[in-house]
UniProtKB/TrEMBL annotation:
It comes from Pseudokineococcus lusitanus. It comes from the Bacteria. Residues 13-23 have a biased composition (Basic and acidic residues). This is DMSO/TMAO reductase YedYZ molybdopterin-dependent catalytic subunit. Residues 1-48 are annotated as: Disordered. Gene3D superfamilies: Oxidoreductase, molybdopterin-binding domain. Residues 54-202 form the Oxidoreductase molybdopterin-binding domain. InterPro entries: OxRdtase_Mopterin-bd_dom (IPR000572), OxRdtase_Mopterin-bd_sf (IPR036374).
Length: 230
């Protein structure tokens, strides 16, 4: 094959801005076919498995509250019922989900309420370092304030345009795209602002206080290897 074929662009160009061959989407330099960069040690799965500790709770809309408590700036505890939560402005985030057990699911289209919106409405006291985020049945995780307020952190109610199913966290799950997914409770119920790190469910069982998947922060012993990231 001498022309118009499927070789890489370098085989056709004259090096002076002349005619380039039409891009061959199956060729070795095809940009959209190159493997997606995943955090180290992760492998992609085609769709979300169902993965959690314990049972799927039953949602009771009239009893449901989302709570912001602990070291709030005004010293008050704030409870939102379903109607108040549904009245908040909405946004969406496309994000990969990374489980510490080494699987990832790419391109989840989450929509819901930016976590920042609630942090701004109910801000922390000056000495707050993070939050213990929690769900039904006492599941919890510790997150730093900067992770909670990241512009991509979302209180998701929908995935792929559909309301969350019960096993994936209906009515609300916390999504922190850059942290391992144990940090994001399904059946989310709120957070407690903390002035020093308070370990959650997995962090008390040997998992990392920060949990940045790009740094492979899985285990708590890694906190000692890098003081200041605990
Ligand atoms: N409430 C609650 N949320 C949870 C968990 C859990 O055990 N309880 N497990 C976490 C973990 S380890 C993972 S990998 C994801 C799995 O989400 P999925 O079941 O939608 O795939 O949920 C996270 N959120
Ligand atoms: Mo996980």
């Amino acid at each position: 094959m001498t022309d118009g074929g499927g070789g890489p662009p370098a085989a056709h160009g004259d090096g002076h801005g002349g005619q380039r061959a039409p891009h061959d989407l199956t060729g070795p330099l095809a940009p959209y076919r190159s493997p997606r960069t995943l955090p180290p040690g992760q492998q992609a799965l085609p769709d979300l498995p169902v993965m959690h500790y314990g049972r799927v709770p039953r949602h009771r809309p009239e009893r449901w509250r989302l709570t912001v408590e602990g070291a709030t700036r005004d010293g008050e505890r704030h409870d939102l019922d379903m109607a108040a939560f549904e009245a908040l402005p909405r946004t969406s985030v496309r994000a990969d989900l990374h489980c510490a057990a080494r699987w990832s699911v790419l391109d989840n289209e989450w929509s819901g309420v930016a976590t920042r919106t609630l942090v701004e409405a109910y801000p922390p006291a000056d000495d707050v370092v993070g939050a213990l985020v929690y769900a039904e049945y006492g599941y919890s995780a510790t997150v730093r304030l900067e992770d909670l307020t990241s512009p991509r952190t979302l209180l998701a109610t929908h995935r792929g345009g559909e309301p969350l199913t019960p096993e994936h966290g209906h009515p609300v799950r916390l999504v922190l795209p850059h942290l391992y997914s144990w940090k994001g409770p399904k059946w989310f119920r709120g957070w407690e602002y903390v002035t020093e790190v308070k370990r959650g469910f997995w962090e008390e069982r040997g998992y990392h206080a920060v949990g940045d998947c790009w740094r492979q922060e899985r285990y708590s012993y890694q906190e000692e290897e890098e003081p200041g990231r605990g």
